Amino acid sequence: MKPQDLLFFNRSDRGVLLFFLLLLVGGLALMGWLGGGGGRGTAGSVDSTAATDRPQPRFADTDEAHPSKDYEPYAVAPAHVPERFPFDPNTADSSQLLRLGLQPWQVRNIYRYRAAGGIYRRPADFARLYGLTRRQYRELEPYIRISDDYLPAATRYATATPVTADTVRRHPAKLGPTERVDLNAADTTLLMRVPGIGPYFAARIVNYRQRLGGYAHTEQLREIDDFPEQALGYFVTGGGVQRLKVNRLRLGELRRHPYINYYQAKAIVDYRRLHGPLTSLDQLRLLDDFTAADIDRLRPYVEF
């Protein structure tokens, strides 16, 4: 047989050779796996035996099992000792409140209460502070001092001569049929003397007067919702209307007037920008945003 013939096998020979090769590789792999596991197991058993034979520390009889009470694992800040001194909860600042032993969040609650308009009028009011314990309040109560500025005004005149029903009427006396009230000068007290006018409509009259800049005529009272008709005859207008400088005011200032809406104010500003200052309200007739009625009721309130 020639040497090169060794490189060529028939089909059956190649199958046998491949079987033995696979068997050899499988055997080597199995031996390697078993050998590695056994080694680790042996090492593990040795380690465990060594660990078992090694003498174990006895903590039951040593200080390590039960550390000394004097041992402090962490630094402990010294406790803050609250101070006691007179204070007014309406004016005390944060540093004073903290010195009294209050927590920062309690101080914030006091500041929010005062910012919302709350007033401590008596020491008992301070007890309502959210988060304040009874013990804290009992300790602080003797030091609470409320300034006279925050006491009810009635306490200032508690010893004065009492007011009787004979000296003050329960309701203001109403006007007679021939008496009249100036719409632009009367305050709410005088307005409530008009038959049909109570506190609600008196306040509405004054509020609308401020928005208008004064009443030009009494018929403007009809613009107040549900205004009582029987009261109209008791009013007169004495002048004093404040006028709008339409060539100087900006859009936001113009639209504040009840007779000028946003689109009308914008139309005035645009007209001034394109055509120059207004010299007459009739110039607004060219604008779609103004009707003849709008211009007529605006006349008493405009100046150029």
From TrEMBL:
<feature type="compositionally biased region" description="Basic and acidic residues">
    <location>
        <begin position="60"/>
        <end position="69"/>
    </location>
</feature>
<dbReference type="InterPro" id="IPR010994">
    <property type="entry name" value="RuvA_2-like"/>
</dbReference>
<dbReference type="GO" id="GO:0015628">
    <property type="term" value="P:protein secretion by the type II secretion system"/>
</dbReference>
<protein>
    <recommendedName>
        <fullName>Helix-hairpin-helix domain-containing protein</fullName>
    </recommendedName>
</protein>
<dbReference type="GO" id="GO:0015627">
    <property type="term" value="C:type II protein secretion system complex"/>
</dbReference>
<feature type="region of interest" description="Disordered">
    <location>
        <begin position="42"/>
        <end position="69"/>
    </location>
</feature>
<dbReference type="InterPro" id="IPR051675">
    <property type="entry name" value="Endo/Exo/Phosphatase_dom_1"/>
</dbReference>
<dbReference type="Pfam" id="PF12836">
    <property type="entry name" value="HHH_3"/>
</dbReference>
